[in-house]
Every structure is written in structure tokens, then in C-alpha cells.
């Protein structure tokens, strides 16, 4: 199959030859029409608006993909008011819908409002509906694009390639664990978190513009109402919270396995129960759960991990990554580190590191987590720096970041 670039070079040679013949014959050659400029459209996590598999059929999905410079990401009309075109067709809202969640697709250009767009203050607004292009649900490669009410969410930030990108933008892997506190949404945005969780099926107590990931905390939450709430609240579901601890979900492996089909029945991407410790140990709680899940034909899509270090020295980040690697080596599944930090729980009250020790750990740990391909996401415990959590939290109730918060804000941007 001849590549588009080869065809383009041939066309240039033909035009040049005809121009020369016209000059020889004493005929003035007509000026060639100026080609329209094109560019990539860059969004959340530095990914691009892309036509699925470079398909040209009307109805082809348009999604978020790693920027790669192919024709499927080459858009004409960016920065103008009107159609956005790629592969000879137009960016279109399916069915001309004005509803939140309406999918975006490639379609024959027809001049309707469903194909009219304007780039305004970092948002791509469909003028027919007045709604914004949105990578709703996060920054994962393959996220299908849609329109939603314009909200200023990071997933609605777009810019032409070379135009500085959507700023400031969250870091795709980076998240926070939090509970309700006054500047919750501001803190999530300020530290650059692309996602967050609050150990519940709904973000009603901590609404924010970042992606919310619901959790089924324990056996009491395995009911129709909470499972339906989780389905409405996100695309990915976190499993039971520290079922190996009496003070947490406190579940036997067998009980967790018996309940797991209810979680799987949501159809959501599903994270394992997050044990408090020993996830890599043969015969441990998680090991027995995953073995039982295989035997029963149950699905687990990634491993959720918790890790807290009681050693506060310069090598603390190596201890974290050693644990993460051991778990991945044992199970071969992607990893989400859904809680991590430096806290020595063996002492009463718990012992905490100094601010500088926290900064050093955050700098090293987040750099390693960002650089590790099988680590999909991580979230610090915890966002609020208040009460007993003041020594290790990221964001104060007065709306300012701690030293640890400032370090976490910089994570993923180096």
C-alpha cells in the first residue's frame, strides 16, 4: 500500500513538471492554491485527538491517543470557527445531539452545527450545542471523546501542538486519597491530581473536576444501591479496603470471593482488594484471593496496593519500589498504588518524618512511579493536612500547600 507521504511527493513532482512545461511554452502558470495548515490537538496528559485506527468511514470513533504525528491526528481548521477536518471528513457530534455524553465521531462534512467548533480559552466548543469536547473519565489512551457541559475540567482543555498545551493540566498517573474538608476541590486541582478516591461509591461529599474512582469498601457496600451508585460515579471500581485488617474491611478470602461476582457484574474495570501489607507473599491474603479468583473464573484487572514506610531515610523510595516490583513480578498485572506515604504505625501515637524527609521521599518516589510502565496510577495518603494528619498531608484548611504538597504538585512535571 502506498503511503500518503509518497503520494504527496509524487503530486509535488507532477505539479513542478507541468509548471516547467507551461513556462517553456510561454504560458504563465496559474499560481497553486495555498495548502491549508494542519496540526495536532493536544489535551489532557499531553495526548492527542485521534481518529480510531485512522478509519475513514463515517461514524468512526474519535478518541484520545498518544501523540504520534500520523494523519489520524492531523486536523485542519484548528483556531478557526467552523469545521475541524481529518482524513477528508469532519469532527461531528453523533446525531447532532446536545446531550452530555454524546459521542464524537468522524463524518461526511455537511455544514451543520454538529460539525462547527471554536477554540475558546483552551476549550473546544461545539457551537451547535454550546458544549465542550471532553475526554470524560480521565486520561487513558483510548478514552472515547464526547461533548459535555463546559466546566473547566482538565479533560476539556485543548491546544494546538506547539501552542503550549493545555495548562496547567493534571498529571495522568497522579492522584490523591482524600476525605471531605473545606478546600477539597481546590486542593485536588492545585496539586495537579488527574484522579482521586475517597473510599466510597460516590463523590457527593468531595465533588471535584478530576476523575473520581469509586470504591466498594467492604461487605456492607455490596448491595444494589451502592453498586449502582458506583456505576454512575466512574468507569473503574476499587475493591475492598484492607480486608486483612480487623479495623478495616475485615473479610475472609472466601467471603470476598463469594461477593466478587457482584462487583464484576457492574462491568467496570476492576481493581483487586487492597491489602494492608504482604501483597507479594505466597499464601498471603491477596495471593489466596487471586488464586481463588482464577479457580472460579473471576476477573481482576489490576492490583491495588497500599504501602507505608517506617524508615524515613534517603532510600525510602527504593523500599516502596522494591515492594511494587515484587507484587508485579508475582502476578503480572498492572499496579495502582492507591495509598502510600511515610508513617510509622508501630508507635503510639504514630511517628512521622520531618518535612524535608517527606519532600525527598515524594521527589524520588513519584519520579520512580512515573517512570515505571506497569504502574498505571498512584495516590498519596492523604490530601488534607489537618488534625492528626497535619504532619503528612498535602493541603491545609487555609487553602495553602504544605512543603509535601508543593513537592507533590511538582511530581510528574520534571
Automatic annotation (TrEMBL):
Single Gene Ontology BP term? fungal-type cell wall polysaccharide metabolic process
Which organism is the protein's source?
Answer: Micromonospora zingiberis
Give the range the annotation lists for the signal sequence.
1-35
Q: What is this protein called?
A: RNA polymerase subunit sigma-24
Keyword annotations of the record: Signal
Tell me the superkingdom of the source.
Bacteria
- Lineage per the UniProt record: Bacteria, Bacillati, Actinomycetota, Actinomycetes, Micromonosporales
Q: Where is the Ricin B lectin domain?
A: 37-161
Q: Read off the InterPro entries from this record.
A: ASL1, Asl1_glyco_hydro_catalytic, GH, Ricin_B-like_lectins, Ricin_B_lectin, TAT_signal
Amino acid at each position: 500500500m502506498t503511503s500518503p507521504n509518497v503520494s504527496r511527493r509524487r503530486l509535488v513532482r507532477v505539479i513542478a513538471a507541468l509548471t516547467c512545461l507551461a513556462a517553456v511554452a510561454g504560458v504563465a502558470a496559474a499560481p497553486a492554491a495555498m495548502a491549508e495548515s494542519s496540526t495536532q490537538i493536544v489535551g489532557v496528559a499531553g495526548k492527542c485527538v485521534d481518529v480510531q485506527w485512522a478509519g475513514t468511514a463515517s461514524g468512526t470513533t474519535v478518541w484520545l491517543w498518544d501523540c504520534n504525528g500520523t494523519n489520524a491526528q492531523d486536523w485542519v481548521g484548528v483556531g478557526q470557527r467552523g469545521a475541524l477536518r481529518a482524513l477528508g471528513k469532519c469532527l461531528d457530534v453523533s446525531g447532532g445531539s446536545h446531550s452530555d455524553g454524546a459521542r464524537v465521531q468522524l463524518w461526511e462534512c455537511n455544514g451543520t452545527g454538529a460539525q462547527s467548533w471554536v477554540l475558546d480559552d483552551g476549550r473546544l466548543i461545539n457551537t451547535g450545542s454550546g458544549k465542550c469536547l471532553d475526554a470524560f473519565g480521565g486520561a487513558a489512551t483510548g478514552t472515547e471523546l464526547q461533548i459535555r457541559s463546559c466546566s473547566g475540567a482538565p479533560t476539556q482543555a485543548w491546544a494546538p501542538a506547539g501552542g503550549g498545551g493545555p495548562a496547567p493540566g493534571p498529571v495522568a498517573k497522579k492522584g490523591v486519597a482524600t476525605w471531605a474538608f473545606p478546600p477539597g476541590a481546590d486542593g485536588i486541582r492545585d496539586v495537579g491530581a488527574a484522579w482521586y478516591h475517597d473510599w466510597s461509591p460516590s463523590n457527593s461529599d468531595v465533588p471535584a473536576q478530576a476523575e473520581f474512582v469509586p470504591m466498594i469498601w467492604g461487605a456492607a457496600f455490596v448491595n444494589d444501591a451502592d453498586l449502582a451508585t458506583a456505576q454512575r460515579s466512574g468507569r473503574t471500581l476499587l475493591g475492598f479496603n484492607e480486608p486483612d485488617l480487623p479495623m478495616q474491611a475485615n473479610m475472609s478470602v472466601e467471603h470476598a470471593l463469594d461477593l466478587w461476582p457482584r462487583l464484576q457484574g457492574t462491568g467496570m474495570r476492576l481493581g483487586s482488594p487492597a491489602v494492608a501489607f504482604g501483597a507479594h507473599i505466597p499464601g498471603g491474603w491477596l495471593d489466596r484471593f487471586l488464586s481463588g479468583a482464577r479457580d472460579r473464573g473471576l476477573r481482576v484487572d489490576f492490583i491495588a496496593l497500599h504501602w507505608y514506610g517506617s524508615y524515613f531515610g534517603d532510600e525510602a523510595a527504593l523500599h516502596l519500589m522494591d515492594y511494587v516490583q515484587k507484587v508485579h513480578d508475582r502476578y503480572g498485572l498492572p499496579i495502582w498504588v492507591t495509598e502510600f506515604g511515610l508513617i510509622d504505625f508501630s508507635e503510639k501515637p504514630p511517628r512521622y518524618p520531618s518535612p524535608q524527609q517527606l519532600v525527598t521521599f515524594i521527589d524520588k518516589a513519584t519520579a520512580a512511579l512515573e517512570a515505571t510502565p506497569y504502574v498505571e496510577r498512584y495516590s498519596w495518603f492523604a490530601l488534607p493536612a489537618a488534625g492528626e494528619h497535619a504532619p503528612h498531608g498535602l493541603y491545609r484548611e487555609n487553602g495553602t500547600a504544605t512543603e509535601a504538597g508543593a513537592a507533590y504538585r511538582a511530581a510528574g512535571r520534571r
